């Protein structure tokens, strides 16, 4: 009897204790924190965490702290669905992530049926565009990117492009290469070869051989940073001078770290401006570097924006409207470098510019 | 009042009692113990955790130092030895359980040598050869510091997975050795830890490198947000309680210098703490055992307790069934013993009452009989009186009915009685019954239906009323006789009464006659007195006038010869004197007449009027003067003036006359002189007391009480009617509304007191 009383008292005490401070707001982050896209996942996570910590430092949302629950999707759809389900069961208000289109597509059904908002900082496959679902995307679509890439290639004078596409994020890479091919060939270019590959492959040499076999002007890697670096390394071993480009997916520090000299001169699209001198961005960059010891990647910026968007909505809405509607209606939101406004389907537009790796850094042309 | 139904056994109550009591006692003791020991547990846990974390930090430092040494040795070798030696050495390093991949990077940044432990993925690793790692972070750090650097979470260029790497400086190149995280994990899980402990290893950015609880957290979870992390960053050690994923833990952190990693050891805190948990589980087990024990023991004890109760109950049952004998069991338990004793007393009391009733039944002076309520109305019980009445023995009549025994002299009686019983539940009748020996007697039978023990029975009461009826008859006859006699007597009495009434009438008439004649007599004396009195003044008047005639004659003679002054003066004087005397006397005579008239009027008419007492008294005295003159007594009157009465002066006067007359007549015989005083005291409360007192011979004692009765006189036949005082008494009472009393002392005198109201009551006058 007294144990029960003790337990009851304990519960009462903890409730009282909890009463002192308001209940924290629970947000989830789900990302590819292990596996081949770990760099993306990690940089996204870091951006999100930084944003959450900043908000909590400033007093939270309407006096309530944000509690960020982080889950790893793993490298396949099943583990992703499991992790996604865990977050749903933890009664999160919304989830930021995942970073890749493939995983996003895999877990979206769960979130649609749970009517929980999923904000993916970076997913961009066309398939995810224009649907009335619970997915909000900070990024724009592969089509938009691919069109820019096509234009850029043509501007640079590359007419023959050989592409390597990563099978592990098929949704993204297939979408990407199709959009690129369409746009590129519409303007007179031609995609001379598409070589799908698996990140787990023992050796990427065959892929490079395959790509070079088509005698392209440009090698285009539709892969993550790690794979793009490997491909670049292999390419440089065989052909020191062929121009290289990578899809925006690869645009992290890891590309430079793992690519070394092999990626010098590699061009890619950046969805944020690393050279931005605005106070907000410089502050963010410095905090990021202090906290994580590296430069923020586009995933970090977008994830940061995703959290900002979510937090602003929660603050403005304060529980009055369902979150999905609020996100659409309560915009525009001030991101790190852009204002973000969602259309009815939860899509938005984004600025992007091309960058080249020079001296181990992304620089704008 | 609702009596609860008996629903459970003693053993159930006892079991509950025992179980609950021991449970409560145990729980209280347990809670107290817990409260005392819990903080000690917590402290001990903290100490253990701290020790562990430091131990882990130390061990990791050692392990990494070892690995670092290996790599540094390799670096040394690489700087001096030829390539193949270095290669071999690298290979041997990776074959030990340490580094998974080792590669050498030349100053331009490309990988010149690789050795890998992995059996699969070899090819991938071999691809590293020739790759450019000039931007590799670790390499940069080594080149920057020109000394060994242990990385934080390191993205492997070879596997793209997360590892930890050590980079060493050969003097020219950088050699990097990758350590799989499983190695880190193994160092921390080597020793046996309590199952509830979990260990984290994180890099300086808070990214987990190892998690003994859930490997999926590695790379995912960042624990910078835990406050204890910040404390450890500053102090190198920290302990405390922290919340992670909604649960609270005791955590101890130790930070190793090389590498700059944090080692967290945590154990659930609060109620989930393992030691506490164990204690609670033990407690729960003990509690369950206690309860089980109670459940086993209590029924045993209960049955022990119940045995004497059953014994008492058994004896009670025996008594109830009417079985004689049996012992009331005794018990060492005081309450049960008292119960047995009380039950015994109760049984005895009931038996006594039964016997009482039995005695009453048997020895009742009337015959009592109990029969069935339905035909054939067989006799069930009979008392002794019944047997005596009917002359049978008990066993001769029980079980039979009246008809069988030939009780009824007339069976119609029985039928009537039975009919009444069946219809009205009661009956009574006087019937003739036959005894066993054939003799008859008259029985008064009453019957009533009752419920006895749930069954309907008829109670019959029979009394032998033969003699009674006989006596009644005689009495009745006597009564009739008596009535006749009474009637006769009544008639005689009536006649006697009638006679007496007429006699009484006569007497009353005689009385009134006497009263009237007395009145007349007094009136007569009154007239006599009046005449007597008048005589004097009239005589004086006559005399005066005759003298005056003489004077006139003289004057005429004297003045025949001429009027002389002296003769005129003499004549005038004579006229003056004469007329004066005559006037006075005539006036007096007139007064007397008026007075007498009034008295007479008063006496005869008995009219009521308002008068002054003293005036009336004086007038009466005046009439009495003759009487008084002949008496030796002297009359003294003292009546205050101003007493106004509204009464009957006549009768009043009559009384006064009577009393004074009596006094003169009777009071002073053989006396030479005496005094009669007539006085009244001032009225009080509207009443007046008029006293007539003499100092005569008094009234004898034996006469005094009867003095106001009629025909009481001391001078009967000598001139007294004996009615005077009686009349006075009547007048005083009936007319004046008062009363008259007499008091007397023989030899000294007599006083009559008349006590009357000033205002006489309305009503009758004496006829």
Question: What characteristics describe this protein?
Answer:
heterodimer; A: 365 residues; alpha/beta; seven-stranded mixed beta sheet; five-stranded parallel beta sheet; 14 strands; B: 767 residues; alpha+beta; five-stranded antiparallel beta sheet; 22 strands; 20% strand
Identify the strand order in the major beta sheet of chain A.
7-6-8-9-10-13-14
Topology, number of strands of chain A: 14
Q: Measure the end-to-end span of chain A.
A: 76 Å
Low-confidence stretches of chain B: none
Mean of all residue-level pLDDT scores of chain B: 83
Radius of gyration of chain B: 78 Å
Give the overall shape of chain A, derived from the CA principal axes.
elongated
Task: Tell me the structural class of chain A.
Answer: alpha/beta
Largest interface: A-B, 51 and 47 residues
Largest sheet of chain B: 5 strands, antiparallel
């Amino acid at each position: 009897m007294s144990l029960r009383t003790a337990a009851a008292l304990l519960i009462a005490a903890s409730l009282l204790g909890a009463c002192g401070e308001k209940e924290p707001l629970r947000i989830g982050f789900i990302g590819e924190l292990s596996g081949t896209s770990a760099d993306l996942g990690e940089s996204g996570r870091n951006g999100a965490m930084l944003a959450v910590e900043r908000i909590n430092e400033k007093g939270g949302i309407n006096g309530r702290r944000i509690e960020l629950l982080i889950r790893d999707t793993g490298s396949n759809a099943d583990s992703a669905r499991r992790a996604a389900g865990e977050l749903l069961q933890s009664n999160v208000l919304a989830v930021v992530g995942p970073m890749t289109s493939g995983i996003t597509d895999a877990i979206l059904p769960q979130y649609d049926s749970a009517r929980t908002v999923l904000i993916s900082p970076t997913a961009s496959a066309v398939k995810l565009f224009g649907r009335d679902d619970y997915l909000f995307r900070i990024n724009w679509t592969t089509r938009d990117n691919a069109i820019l890439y096509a234009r850029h290639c043509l501007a640079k004078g590359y007419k023959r492009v050989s592409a390597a596409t990563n099978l592990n994020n098929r949704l993204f890479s297939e979408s990407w290469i199709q959009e690129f091919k369409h746009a590129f060939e519409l303007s007179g270019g031609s995609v001379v070869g598409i070589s799908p590959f698996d990140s787990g492959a023992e050796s990427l040499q065959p892929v490079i051989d395959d790509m070079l076999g088509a005698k392209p002007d440009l090698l285009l890697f539709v892969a993550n940073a790690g794979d793009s670096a490997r491909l670049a390394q292999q390419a440089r071993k065989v052909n020191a001078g062929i121009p290289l480009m990578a899809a925006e997916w690869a645009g992290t520090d890891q590309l430079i770290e793992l690519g070394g000299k092999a990626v010098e001169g590699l061009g890619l699209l950046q969805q944020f401006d690393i050279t931005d001198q605005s106070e907000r961005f410089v502050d963010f960059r410095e905090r990021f570097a202090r906290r994580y010891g590296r430069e923020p990647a586009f995933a970090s910026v977008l994830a940061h924006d995703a959290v900002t968007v979510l937090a602003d909505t929660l603050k403005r809405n304060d529980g009055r409207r369902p979150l999905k509607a609020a996100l659409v209606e309560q915009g525009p939101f001030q991101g790190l470098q852009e204002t973000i406004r969602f259309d009815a389907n939860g899509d938005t537009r984004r600025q992007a510019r091309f960058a080249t790796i020079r001296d181990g850094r992304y620089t704008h042309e | 009042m609702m009596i609860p139904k008996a629903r459970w056994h003693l053993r159930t109550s006892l079991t509950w009692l025992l179980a609950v009591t021991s449970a409560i006692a145990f729980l209280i003791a347990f809670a107290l113990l817990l409260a005392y020991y819990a903080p000690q547990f917590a402290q001990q846990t903290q100490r253990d955790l701290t020790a562990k974390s430091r131990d882990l930090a130390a061990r990791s430092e050692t392990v990494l130092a070892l690995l670092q040494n290996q790599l540094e040795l390799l670096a040394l070798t690489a700087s001096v030895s030829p390539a193949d030696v270095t290669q071999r050495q690298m290979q041997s390093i990776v074959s030990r359980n340490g580094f998974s991949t080792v590669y050498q990077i030349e100053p331009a940044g490309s990988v010149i040598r690789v050795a890998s432990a992995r059996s699969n993925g070899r090819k991938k690793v071999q691809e590293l050869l020739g790759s450019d790692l000039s931007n590799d972070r670790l390499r940069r750090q080594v080149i920057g510091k020109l000394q060994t650097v242990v990385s934080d979470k390191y993205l492997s260029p070879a596997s793209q997975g997360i590892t930890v790497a050590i980079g060493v400086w050969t003097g020219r190149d950088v050699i990097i050795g990758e350590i799989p995280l499983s190695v880190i994990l193994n160092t921390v899980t080597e020793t046996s830890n309590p199952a509830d402990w979990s260990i984290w290893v994180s890099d300086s950015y808070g990214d987990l490198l190892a998690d003994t609880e859930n490997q999926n957290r590695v790379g995912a979870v960042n624990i910078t947000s835990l406050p204890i992390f910040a404390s450890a960053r500053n102090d190198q050690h920290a302990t405390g309680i922290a919340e992670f994923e909604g649960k609270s833990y005791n955590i101890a952190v130790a930070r190793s210098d090389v590498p700059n990693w944090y080692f967290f050891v945590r154990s659930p805190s609060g109620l989930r703490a393992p030691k506490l948990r164990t204690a609670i589980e033990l407690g729960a087990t003990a509690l369950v055992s206690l309860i089980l024990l109670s459940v086993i023991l209590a029924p045993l004890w209960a049955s022990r307790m119940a045995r004497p109760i059953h014994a008492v109950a058994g004896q009670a049952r025996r008594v109830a069934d009417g079985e004689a004998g049996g012992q009331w069991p005794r018990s060492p338990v005081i309450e049960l013993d008292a119960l047995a004793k009380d039950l015994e007393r109760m049984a005895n009391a009931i038996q006594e009452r039964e016997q009482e009733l039995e005695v009453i039944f048997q020895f009742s002076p009337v015959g009592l009989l109990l029969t069935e309520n339905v035909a054939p109305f067989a006799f069930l019980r009979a008392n002794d009186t019944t047997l005596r009445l009917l002359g049978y023995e008990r066993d001769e009549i029980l079980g039979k009915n009246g008809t069988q025994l030939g009780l009824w002299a007339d069976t119609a009686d029985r039928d009537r009685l039975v009919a009444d019983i069946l219809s009205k539940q009661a009956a009574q009748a006087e019937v003739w019954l036959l005894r066993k020996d054939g003799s008859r007697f008259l029985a008064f039978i009453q019957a009533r239906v009752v419920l006895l023990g749930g069954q309907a029975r008829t109670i019959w009461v029979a009394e032998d009323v033969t003699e009674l009826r006989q006596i009644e008859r005689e009495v009745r006859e006597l009564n009739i006789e008596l009535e006749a006699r009474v009637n006769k007597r009544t008639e005689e009495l009536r006649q006697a009464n009638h006679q007496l009434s007429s006699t009484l009438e006569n007497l009353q008439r005689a009385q009134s006659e006497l009263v009237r004649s007395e009145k007349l007599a007094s009136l007569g004396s009154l007239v006599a007195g009046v005449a007597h009195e008048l005589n004097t003044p009239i005589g004086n008047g006559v005399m005066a006038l005759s003298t005056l005639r003489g004077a006139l004659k003289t004057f005429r003679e004297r003045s025949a010869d001429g009027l002389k002054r002296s003769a005129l003066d003499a004549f005038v004087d004579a006229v003056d004197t004469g007329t004066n005397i005559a006037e006075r006397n005539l006036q007096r005579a007139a007064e007397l007449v008026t007075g007498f008239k009034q008295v007479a009027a008063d006496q005869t008419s008995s009219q009521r009027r308002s008068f002054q007492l003293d005036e009336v008294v004086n007038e009466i005295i005046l009439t009495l003067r003759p009487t008084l003159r002949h008496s030796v007594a002297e009359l003294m009157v003292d009546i205050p003036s101003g007493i106004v009465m509204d009464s009957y002066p006549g009768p009043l006067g009559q009384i006064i006359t009577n009393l004074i007359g009596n006094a003169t007549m009777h009071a002073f015989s053989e006396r030479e002189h005496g005094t009669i005083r007539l006085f009244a005291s001032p009225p009080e409360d509207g009443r007046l007391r008029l006293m007539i007192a003499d100092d005569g011979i008094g009234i004898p004692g034996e006469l005094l009480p009867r003095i106001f009765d009629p025909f009481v006189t001391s001078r009967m036949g000598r001139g007294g009617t004996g009615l005077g005082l009686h009349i006075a008494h009547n007048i005083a009472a009936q007319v004046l509304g008062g009363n008259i009393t007499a008091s007397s002392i023989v030899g000294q005198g007599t006083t009559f007191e008349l006590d009357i109201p000033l205002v006489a009551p309305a009503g009758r006058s004496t006829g």
